[in-house]
Amino acid sequence: MEPAELLPLYEWAAGTCFRHPGLGQVETAHLKTLHPRTGEELDIRGCRECVMTLEAQRERAAVRSGSVYEPGHLGCSP
Asked: What is the strand order of the sheet 12-16 is part of?
């Protein structure tokens, strides 16, 4: 799927990418919220590059398993 089609499926805001924290604040999409038993909730955010990479992995996995690939659902439970 092309970035112009995929990226608008997510809401973007300034944040820190979980894979590239050294970049500092960049445009990121919320991927998941972790709820540890101790401590505060932790929002996991991904930059555009990571969202594209993760979506490509989801698409390949869907093809392998014979499932339907629906873009825009990173972090959602199956």
From this structure: 12-16, 25-34, 42-47
